[in-house]
Every structure is written in C-alpha cells, then in structure tokens.
C-alpha cells in the first residue's frame, strides 16, 4: 500500500463547493492505497463536515504549533484535531518555514496524535528534516512543481537518493516524492524507485473529470 496525497492548493477549481466535488471523487475511489486529502485552510471545516466514513485522510496544507488562543492569523494544530483532521502538510515550496519551526510543529503534532508530512526541496533538506522524526518526508524539487514533468522520470536519482537519505536517518519515517506527478506511469515509477507515496495537485484538482482521472491514476 502506498499513500497518494492530493494537495488542492487554492485553485478556483478546488475551493468552496468544488472542494466537495473533489472530496466525493476521492471518497468513492476503490483502491488498496491510502488517499490523503489536503483542502484549502478556508475549506477545512466544510470538508470535515462533509467527509463520511473517515476516508480519505484529511491533512491541513499548513499548521502552526501553537494551541488555540491569542494568535491572530494562525492555524492552530489543535483546531485541525477538533475538526477531525489526521495530520498536516508542512514546508511546501509555496509555504516554506524555518527548520526550528518545522521541528516545533512536528513535536506538537505528535503530542496531539497528528501526522506531519514535511516537504523538502532537495536531498540535503530531506536529510535535515528527517532528523525531526516526522511521519513522512516528501522530496519535491520546486522547479518541477506544476510542470507536468515528473521528478521520477527526469531525476530518478534524486528519488533514490532522497529515499536513502531519509531512511538512513530513521527507517520509520516514510519517504514520499512529488513535483510533476501527473499520471499512473509517474506513480508506478516513483514506487519502483523506492518512494512510499506521492504528492500531486493540479493534475487532480484541475482534471475535467477528477473521478475518472483518479481511477485511472490508481489503476
């Protein structure tokens, strides 16, 4: 079983009621793999109320380590927990945060029983953030994000080296890959290179028929 992380970002096609359309596509997918759904923070409550049966898993696109309180503009982890989310994405190339903050948020997530998926833009960064012992680390070269050109096809050595780097630090930390993943071939190749999951966004969020696209992707 692998993990397929569906990052909705904040596209017009993936927010508001459109997020629920995509949620239904993910919830009805018949697969042995585990789906992780990452809605816009503004849609977190809407999506949480609409999910049934605990599938797919819900992750925030970002979260802060602080608890609820006098923290204007923050996205407290405990509020995601109360909504029924299972984890959060951290340090995406579009939302980079300092490493000390990553470590603090990972530790806070663990205390709440939440999973932290930390993105890394290089093998070197993957090794550094793996030392914080998050649930998973995802290697995503930023230049390929949204390109439609998968890292597994043009930089297979980065996937292999990234997975090896993460596992060398802590074998229990899962190693994912992302950037340009847009079809089943990319998915299969990523797994063959050692990845335990993939991240993708626009290919699913902007698909004309997301249910069919996801069915074809999962095989």
Structure report:
The protein is an alpha/beta fold and 219 residues long. It has a single domain (3-218), classed as TIM Barrel (Alpha-Beta Barrel), CATH 3.20.20.70. The protein contains ten helices and eight strands. It has helices at residues 17-27, 44-50, 77-83, 99-112, 123-130, 151-154, 156-169, 184-192, 202-205, 210-218; strands spanning 3-7, 34-38, 57-60, 87-90, 115-120, 136-139, 174-177, 197-200. Strand 4 (87-90), helix 4 (99-112) and strand 5 (115-120) form a beta-alpha-beta unit. Helix 5 runs parallel beside helix 7. The longest helix has 14 residues, at 99-112. 45% of the residues are buried. The model has no long low-confidence stretch (mean pLDDT 92).
SSE topology sketch:
Layout: E1 3-7, H1 17-27, E2 34-38, H2 44-50, E3 57-60, H3 77-83, E4 87-90, H4 99-112, E5 115-120, H5 123-130, E6 136-139, H6 151-154, H7 156-169, E7 174-177, H8 184-192, E8 197-200, H9 202-205, H10 210-218
Parallel strand pairs: 1-2, 1-8, 2-3, 3-4, 4-5, 5-6, 6-7, 7-8
Helix pairs in contact: 1-10, 5-7
């Amino acid at each position: 079983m692998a993990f397929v992380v569906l990052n909705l970002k904040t596209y017009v096609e993936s927010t508001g009621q459109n997020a629920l359309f995509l949620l239904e596509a993910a919830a009805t997918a018949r697969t042995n793999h585990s789906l992780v759904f990452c809605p816009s923070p503004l849609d977190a409550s809407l999506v949480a109320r609409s999910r049934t049966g605990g599938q797919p898993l819900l992750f925030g696109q970002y979260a802060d380590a602080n608890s609820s309180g006098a923290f204007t503009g923050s996205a407290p982890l405990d509020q995601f927990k109360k909504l029924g989310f299972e984890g959060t994405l951290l340090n995406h190339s579009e939302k980079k945060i300092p490493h000390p903050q990553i470590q603090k948020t990972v530790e806070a997530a663990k205390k709440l029983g939440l999973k932290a998926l930390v993105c890394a833009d290089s093998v070197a960064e993957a090794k550094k953030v793996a030392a914080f012992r998050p649930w998973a680390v995802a290697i995503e070269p930023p230049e390929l994000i949204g390109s439609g050109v998968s890292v597994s096809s043009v930089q297979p050595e980065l996937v292999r080296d990234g997975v090896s780097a993460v596992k060398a630090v802590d074998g229990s930390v899962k190693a994912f890959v992302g950037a340009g993943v847009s079809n089943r071939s990319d998915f299969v190749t990523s797994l063959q290179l050692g990845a335990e999951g993939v991240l993708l966004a626009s290919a699913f969020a902007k698909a004309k028929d997301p249910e069919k696209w996801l069915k074809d992707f999962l095989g």
